[in-house]
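Appendix C. Worked example: PmoA family protein
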Amino acid sequence: MRHLKKTFPARFGLATLALAVGCTSAIAQDRRLILRGEHGVPPETPVVLAAPEDLDPGLYTLKSTPDAPAVDGVVVADGERRSFVFIAPETTEPSSYQVSLSTRTPKPGEGVAFTPEGPNLKLAVDGRLLGIHHVDGAYKPFLYPLIGPTGAAMTRAFPIEKVAGEDDDHPHHESFWFTHGKVNGFDFWTVKEGTIRETARQVDASGPVLGRLTTRDDWLDPKGAKVCEDERVLTVYATRALRIFDYDVTLKATEGPVVLGETKEGTFGVRVASTMDVDKKTGGKIRNAEGLEDAAAWGKPSSWVDYSGPVGDETVGIAILNHPQSFRYPTTWHVRTYGLFAANPFGGHDFGVDGYGEHSLAKGESLKFSYRLILHRGGVDAVDLAQRFALYAVPPEASWDAAD
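Step 2, the predicted output written as structure tokens:
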């Protein structure tokens, strides 16, 4: 595989978890899970909880009542801890579930699946394409296309493909990507100088509930010398009416000091489908958590921003939520009415916001950036982003009791 040097050490993925179902006593694993908190849980919300130490890895079944539809849950490795994750149906507080180790075998392709496609990796949810993780581009990894819940692409095809009627400006806006315009003085954003190459890849989980992909990337200067590296974790949830995934990037100063320069040209970027552009005046709309809209949202700090507009015969939207533990939360936003949608905490001077300038890392130091994307039908008012952000920022309080 071009540019790919190695994989991470083997991890405890869902393929292994499926084996645990057949060798662990389901009776010993029965629990009553009770959720408490200030917010109800909207339908199709990923709920990520700390897993009890004695809860075995595996696939679980959750039921609020004996007659209620079953919901899948799973125990997965989550950094240095283990998490219990499920996709919640609509609930009210308090929420109570009977949790039992599942005895069923997931169907092939059920939930989230990753399939090699040449040097790239295809991502699908229940057999429906979400996107392709590309490493075959000239400058950086990117995800293209980005398919929403209607089945239509929600990011621009150019420059990967040429589609009649699309804008063809800013060829470095490759659908969905992470980079920055000044790293030790080199421009990795407009790809005039720096390149980013994937060096390791590991599918940590796939199947019901979620899939997780971890990659490592080298940032190289024009002469090919390594400037720094990153680790990216993409977690895709097996939702249906929405498409939801988390994107966590840890940037590491592995080679020496790293200076992330002050510029509006960064950092975590999406180029929305051209028909969604506010400038087209066909229904495109930008709104942030403070209610600022369109051009007024540019450069402002906010916990989330939504960009919606028409694609085909429907209005759809992309929301990006910024986690409170992410560097310089709430991030400032390089979100433009012509279709660029980027979270950038380094554009202080251009944005006119103090505290968002350059940042230096000593060798061995790192920064973490964390975001959740929600691809939805309808405009911003069709999804309760304030509530969804609250649950992303602070999961419900949970207690695990003996089964009834």
